[in-house]
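Quick sanity check, DUF6314 domain-containing protein:
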Amino acid sequence: MDTLSVWFTKADHKTIDYLFHELEFLPTPNPPTESQPWKAKASHLCIEDLYDVAYEFYFKGATLESWSLEYSVKGPAKDYTIKSVYRR
C-alpha cells in the first residue's frame, strides 16, 4: 500500500518534530477520474482521544483541484465530526 507521512514541526516551522499520522491510500476499482477522487484514511491517538480522518483528493489531469478531510473524533474528552474542503 502507498502511504504519505504527515509530521508536526517545531515552532520554527522548518524542523520536523514527530509523526502526526500516515495516510493510507485506498484502492480504487479503476484509475481515479475528475469526478472520482483518490481516497485515503488515517488515525491519530491524542492521549485518550482517537482522531480518525478520511481524505478525498480531486485532480484535473496532474493538477490538484480540491481536497477534503473529515475528522471523526471520539474519546473521554471529545465526540465530534468536522469536515474541511480546500479548493484552488
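Posting the structure with no commentary besides this: Residues 70 and 83 are 4 Å apart (CA to CA).
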